[in-house]
Every structure is written in C-alpha cells, then in structure tokens.
Amino acid sequence: MEPISGVRSDFVEPRLEKQKKLAYVARRYYLDDQKQSDIARELGVSRPLVSRMLSEARELGIVEITVHEPGAQSAGLMNRLRLSGAIQGGVLVEDGEDNDATNRLLSQGAVELLGQLGTRRLGVGWGYLIGQLVFDAMKLADKGHGVLLLTLNYAGDQLAGKQAMKLAKKAGLNVRQVVTGEEIQYDPNGEDNRRGLAGAVALYHIAAAAAREGRSLDEVAAIAQRYADCMASVTVKSTDATHPQNGMSFGDLGETGLMEIGAGQHGEGGGIRVPMMSSRDTVATVADALCRKLELKAGDRAFVMINGCGATTMMEMLVLFKDTVEFLKGKGVEVVASMVGEILTVQEAGGFQMDIAKWDEEFIRLWNTPCHTPAYSKE
C-alpha cells in the first residue's frame, strides 16, 4: 500500500482501527446504555480495559460530553433566532402538560419579559393566552384591597376579560369589572355595536385617581361605571388601516373619495359613507350626534378627546379640536378638559375619533390628580 501524505501505512491503519474500537465501545456505553461489564463480556476483555478505552475516547475527542446549565439551551436557541433576524429578543417557555398549563407558562414568560425590558407595557397578540395574562396581572396588582378590571367592548377584549374574571373568582380574588362601550349608533338602520373606543383612556385616569383617594373597590367601580355611562364616541375614517407586513390597505375606503362615519376602532364598518367634508362641517355633523346621545344642554361641562387614528397629523387634530370647542361653545357647553393626539391608533389609518363626556365636579377633581405612568403623565 502506498504511503498517505508521507505517513507509513503500517502506522495509519492500526491507529484507525483502534479509534474505531474506541468509538464502538463509546457508542455501546453512552448511546446504547450498556454497562461496562456487559461490553467487556461482549468483546472478551476485562472491565478495567473498557474503562480505560472510554477515558481514551474522551481524550482523543471521539467522545464529547456537554453539560447544559438550566436555561442555557433556551438561551442558545434564542440567540440563534436573534442572529437569524426573526426577532430581537424574548423569553422561551416549554410546553405544559395541557393547554391551560402552557398558557400559565406563557403568561409567566410574559411577566419575565416585562422585567427584562424594564417597562410596564407589553403588546401581546390576541388569543386564548390573553385571559391568563390578564389574570396574572390582576394577581400582581392585588395589594389586599381588590382589583378593578376595565374592559373595552370588543370580541377579543371581552373574551380575555371573561376568562380572567373566571380565573380570578376561582382563585378567590376580590374583583369587579366595568365594560366600556361608548360608540354611538350613527347609522339609524345599522347595528348598535356599542364598541369600546379611546374614551376608555380618560376613564383609566378617573378610576385610578379615585383609588388613590382611598375609595373602596365598590366605590371605584361605581365611579368608573358612571363615567362609562356619561361618555359617547364616534370614529370618522378617510382611509383604511394598512397591513404591518406588506403595507396593503385593509379596504377600499381610500379609493372612493368618501369618508365613513361610525367605522369602529379598526374600520370594521357599520357606519355610513359620505362625501368628504371640511373640518368644521365634519365636527358639526358628529359632535351634534354625540351631544344628542349625552343630552348635553347649555350650562353643562364636558371633556373632549380627539384621537388620531394613525395617519392624521397633529395640526389636523388641533384644527378638529378647535372646531369642536367652538361648536360646543355655540351650544352653551363649556369644555373643561381635553386630550388631543394619537392615543389609540390603528396601523396608519386616516381619520379620527371624537369622544365627549359629560362631567361634574367629581370628575373634574379626579381628572386634576397628577399621575406618572409609562403611557401617560399629568401634573
């Protein structure tokens, strides 16, 4: 046999055969789970020789032993996902024994992610998990005085809220729930969906301020419910939302030259499409409908919110707000507080939501309470 790369064949072949024997012994021991004594009998050698062969297999690199510390495998997988560009980071959890167990683990992972991000806000896609996550959040929020769950009247929100309330009651938590559904039925021939819109954001502050004053859970819930009953909203859309991945429109509204009054939060429809109007004429149309719903009259005080849907500029929102204040002033209604900006948006949709709430001294006092949160601050 000719020499290989200058190495004598009578040296290479025995060494290769020896490595094959070492690999065979290692495979039988580590992969086939055979005892050293059984391997020795199989090969007709002593057990100590088998032990030395296993040690030599490790020394030569034929066998490599890796010890995975707890969490190291997940960290490695997460790093590969990060390097692939699929995600920037996250928390991996294993499957549970059943769907409920998996949801609990996912919810705990979400709470862990909140800690990693150093924030109190976390966006989660809709699904059955949300109810479990809301329940875990309620447990964290419960300091012994009970928890108030505020839910918008939308199918996904309601599903999560009902599941969370069921879990909370089963766990013995002291909880109350208030559902907001301030959207008016603009189309008299359409459905009265009473969807929850951006008006709930002001309610959050009012309810939290009442809790800060030391009110009982029942008192805070009653104030929240009273506020929910004193507000009315409507959406005016000029273009539909766009898909976050491909940028395509969800509908044809932008191609019609029309605007839709009563389009809901995401452009679900159910409103009326009318020709585009000026800000003043649009405000006169929708604000009048809200005033009729709330039975506002001269001498009343009101809160006004102009919420941009995603593609509306701040200048446009301020023009709408100015026209709303002037419209209400013409009716003898005083605007005592307001919010203007992108408060609850929908993926670059054109248009706005107008929310008007009828206020009294209690609402004004609670609104003037300072607050500092990741989403909203007020001095």
Key attributes of the depicted protein:
10 strands; alpha+beta; disordered N terminus; Hypothetical Protein Tm841, Chain: A,domain 3
Summarize the structure.
The protein is α+β, with helices and mostly antiparallel strands and 379 residues long. Helix content is 45%, strand content 16%. Among the domains are: 9-59, Orthogonal Bundle (Arc Repressor Mutant, subunit A); 181-378, 2-Layer Sandwich (Hypothetical Protein Tm841, Chain: A,domain 3).
Overall outline: elongated
Strand content: 15-25%
Q: Output the CATH topology of the domain at 181-378.
A: Hypothetical Protein Tm841, Chain: A,domain 3
Distance between the termini: 91 Å
Q: What is the count of DSSP helices, taking H or I runs of 4+ residues? A: 12
Q: Which runs of at least 5 residues are low in confidence (pLDDT < 50)?
A: 1-9
CATH class of the domain at 181-378: Alpha Beta
Residue-averaged pLDDT, rounded? Answer: 85
- The CATH superfamily of the domain at 181-378 is Dihydroxyacetone kinase, domain 2
SSE succession: HHHHHHEHEHHEEEHEHEEHEE
DSSP strand count: 10
Please give the CATH architecture of the domain at 181-378: 2-Layer Sandwich
In helices, the fraction of residues equals: 40-55%
Instruction: Note the main sheet.
Output: 6 strands, mixed
Structural class: alpha+beta
